[in-house]
Amino acid sequence: MTVRLRHDAIVRSLRRNGTSTVADLAAEVGASRRTVLRDISALRDEGFVIHSEPGRGGGLQLDPQSVQTTARLSVAEVFALLISVASMRAAGNLPFAGLADAGLAKIEKSLPRDKVRDLRRFLDCLYVGQLSPLVDISDLAEMDSALLPAFETAFLQRQSLGFQYRDAKGTATNRVVEPHAMLILPPLWYLVTWDPARDDFRHFRMDRISRPVVEEGPTFQRRHVPFEEHVRPVRDLSR
C-alpha cells in the first residue's frame, strides 16, 4: 500500500469507527505503529484535526468537520494540469487563461518544497510548438495513462525508459531510450529521446507508446535537444 492509499485508509477508518487505537489502525493498513504515528502527523499537517485521548477507552478521533486543507497532488498530477493548459495555449484556444494560471500558481504554492523542485525540473523538459498541416493525424489514439508517472521517474532520476512502440504501419517493437524532452504539437504529443542504438535523437508519438518501464542501471547525462525555431520551452508561454 502506498503512502497516499494508507493515508486515505486511515481517514476512512477514523470517520467510520469514531475512535481507533494506533494498534488497530496499524493492523488495518498493514503497517507498523511507528509508521501510523508518522501518518497521523502528516495528516495533521495537511489540515485534518485528529485528537488523541490517552488511557483505557481512549484512542484517536477525527473531528467530524475536519477536512483536508492542503493539496495532496503528486508531481505527475500537477504536471498533467500544467501541460494541459500549455497545450491549449499553444493551440490558441485557452479561454480564461489568467484564471487558469492563477489557479495553478496556488496549487504550486501549496506543494512541499521537494515537490516544487521536482515539478520545475520536470517543466524544464517540456516544449510546445505548432504542428505542420501536412502531418496526418487520422490515426490519433488515446495515450496510455501509465506514461506520465513513468516519465516522471525516468526524467527526474535520469534513468533509461523502455516501452513498446507501434509505428505508422502498426508494427510493434520494443525500445530502450534516454528521455530528454516532451514536445507538444497540438494535438500530437512526442517523447524526445536519445536512442543509443542509433546514436541520434528520436521523436516518438506518445499515443503510440505503451507498457512504459523505467530501466534499472546507470543514469545518463542530459543532452541539448535541437528544436526548430518555432518550438519554445513551456516556461516562455507566460512571458
Summary, kept brief:
The chain has 239 residues and is of the alpha+beta class.
What does this structure look like?
By secondary structure, this protein is an alpha+beta fold. It folds into two domains: 3-62, Arc Repressor Mutant, subunit A, CATH 1.10.10; 75-238, no CATH class. Helices cover 37% and strands 23% of the residues.
Key terms:
elongated, Arc Repressor Mutant, subunit A, single chain, alpha+beta, 7-stranded mixed beta sheet, 3-stranded antiparallel beta sheet, 239 residues
Mean pLDDT: 85
Number of domains: 2
How would you spell out the order of helices and strands?
Answer: HEHHEEHHHEHEEEEEE
Number of strands: 10
Give the oligomeric state of the chains in this entry, treating copies of one chain as homo and distinct chains as hetero: single chain
Structural class: alpha+beta
What's the shape? elongated
Sequence stretches where pLDDT stays below 50 over 5 or more residues: none
Topology:
Blueprint: H1 3-17, E1 19-20, H2 22-29, H3 33-45, E2 50-53, E3 59-62, H4 75-90, H5 97-110, H6 113-123, E4 126-128, H7 147-157, E5 161-166, E6 172-185, E7 188-195, E8 200-205, E9 209-214, E10 232-233
Parallel strand pairs: 4-6
Antiparallel strand pairs: 1-3, 2-3, 4-10, 5-6, 5-9, 6-7, 7-8
Helix pairs in contact: 1-3, 2-3, 4-5, 4-6
